[in-house]
Amino acid sequence: MKSLALENLSKTYFDPYRGTQLTAIKDVSLNVKEGDFVAVVGPSGCGKSTILNMIAGFVPVTSGRILVDGREVKGPGPDRGVVFQSHALFPWKTVAENVTFGPKMRGVGKQERAKIAEEYLALAGLSHAADQYPAELSGGMQQRVGVVRALANNPDVLLMDEPFASVDAQTRMTLQEELTRIWEERRPTVVFITHDVSEAVFLANRVVVLSKGLVLEKVEIPLARPRSWERLVEDDKFKALSNQVLQLVRSA
Ligand SMILES: Nc1ncnc2c1ncn2[C@@H]1O[C@H](COP(=O)(O)OP(=O)(O)OP(=O)(O)O)[C@@H](O)[C@H]1O
Ligand SMILES: [Mg+2]
User: Fold this and answer.
1) Closest ligand 1 atom to the C-alpha of 53?
2) Are 161 and 140 in the same domain?
3) For residue 32, which of 4, 72, 105, 124 is within the disulfide window of CB 3.0 to 4.6 Å?
4) Tens place of pLDDT for every residue, the chain, 252 residues?
5) Is 240 exposed, middle or buried (0-12, 13-18, 19+ CB in 10 A)?
6) Is the same domain home to 139 and 162?
7) Max Cα separation, the chain?
8) Phi, psi torsion values for 211, nearest 5 degrees
9) Which of 13, 159, 196 to mutate to test the pocket of ligand 1 (most atoms within 8 A of CB)?
10) Which atom of ligand 1 has the smallest separation from the CA of 195?
């Protein structure tokens, strides 16, 4: 697992219809230590996805640098795994084939792939669904396949952009607990984008509040692990931290 550094990052988009420039990210610096879990929150349009897409290498930076373990990001790469809100699974492939797609592309053999599928599907509680097709699964299950598909590539950095936004509240809490468990077990370096404050506080070690492309505040989340909703829902420290972040987002 690798560290991640954003150094004075800025992003300006050109609007070809109006012929104007729009500054989406302004001088953002952030250090994410190896094996750390950082959440980024902020109102719609504040630049969360732009930051994630630049780290992923999908969107070029206007100025500043992104370093993964000291090496500058120049484009997408297998060292960074990405999970989006829409899981974008291959509908014609089974769950197991979806999960092992990355390893297959890298030339990993059939036997080894079977092992990877077994391991990662067990991690997500999806062993029973290995031979099913995405359309046969619930939205929450599809989302879990999306998460372990990214993990199966063994990325150094896991980038997640509102991965649980489209599932119901109950499933969402289960997915949050599963992600925490997986992270506590594997310790990938994670950047998790969400506009859900309690989700950010529940999952992360640190919450970055973004406002109009600027870092408004970084809030440490020193809650004990392992974390579960059963324990945290009534926890005073959790409530206080959630309130603090919520006030910041409201003022953003
Ligand atoms: N490809 C693009 N071309 C031009 N402008 C863009 C592009 N992508 C994003 N923007 C603009 O950059 C700003 C930040 O957008 P971004 O998608 O990063 O916000 P966000 O925080 O992820 O919002 P949301 O919570 O709604 O997903 C917005 O003003 C948006 O209109
Ligand atoms: Mg977004």
Assistant:
1) 18
2) no
3) 4
4) 689 999 999 999 998 888 899 999 999 999 999 999 999 999 999 999 999 999 999 999 999 999 999 999 999 998 898 888 776 899 999 999 999 998 999 899 999 999 999 998 988 889 999 999 999 998 888 888 988 888 888 888 999 999 888 888 888 898 899 889 889 988 999 999 999 999 999 999 999 999 999 999 999 999 999 999 999 999 999 999 999 999 999 998
5) exposed
6) no
7) 55
8) -140, 115
9) 13
10) 25
